[in-house]
């Protein structure tokens, strides 16, 4: 199967799934633990501005997470879960360590 055929098949499956036909669907659910953003940031020793910049979000977004007005989802939640396990992970990666 060519790359084009594979992509086309995947898109057709996605459209079928979106229409509610779950018969041939493969659904992958990934569960990521809830994170305490303020605690994670404090463990890094960074200010709110520094931490927000290091993970690529606006300071206002970080403040909303820390105050519970909003909650990180998707890639941000995964990144924060990684930082919770190893607070230096972002700095290590940015330094090329």
Automatic annotation (TrEMBL):
<keyword id="KW-0804">Transcription</keyword>
<dbReference type="InterPro" id="IPR052359">
    <property type="entry name" value="HTH-type_reg/antitoxin"/>
</dbReference>
<keyword id="KW-0805">Transcription regulation</keyword>
<feature type="domain" description="HTH cro/C1-type">
    <location>
        <begin position="37"/>
        <end position="73"/>
    </location>
</feature>
<protein>
    <submittedName>
        <fullName>Transcriptional regulator</fullName>
    </submittedName>
</protein>
<dbReference type="InterPro" id="IPR010982">
    <property type="entry name" value="Lambda_DNA-bd_dom_sf"/>
</dbReference>
<dbReference type="InterPro" id="IPR001387">
    <property type="entry name" value="Cro/C1-type_HTH"/>
</dbReference>
<dbReference type="GO" id="GO:0003677">
    <property type="term" value="F:DNA binding"/>
</dbReference>
<dbReference type="Pfam" id="PF01381">
    <property type="entry name" value="HTH_3"/>
</dbReference>
<keyword id="KW-0238">DNA-binding</keyword>
């Amino acid at each position: 199967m060519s790359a084009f055929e594979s992509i086309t098949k995947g898109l057709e499956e996605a459209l079928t799934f979106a229409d509610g036909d779950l018969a041939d669907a493969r659904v992958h659910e990934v569960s990521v633990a809830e994170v305490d953003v303020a605690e994670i940031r404090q463990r890094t020793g960074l200010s709110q501005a520094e931490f927000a910049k290091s993970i690529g979000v606006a300071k206002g977004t970080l403040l909303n997470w820390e105050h519970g007005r909003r909650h990180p989802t998707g890639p941000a939640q995964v990144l924060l879960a990684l930082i919770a396990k190893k607070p230096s992970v972002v700095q290590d990666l940015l330094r090329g360590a």
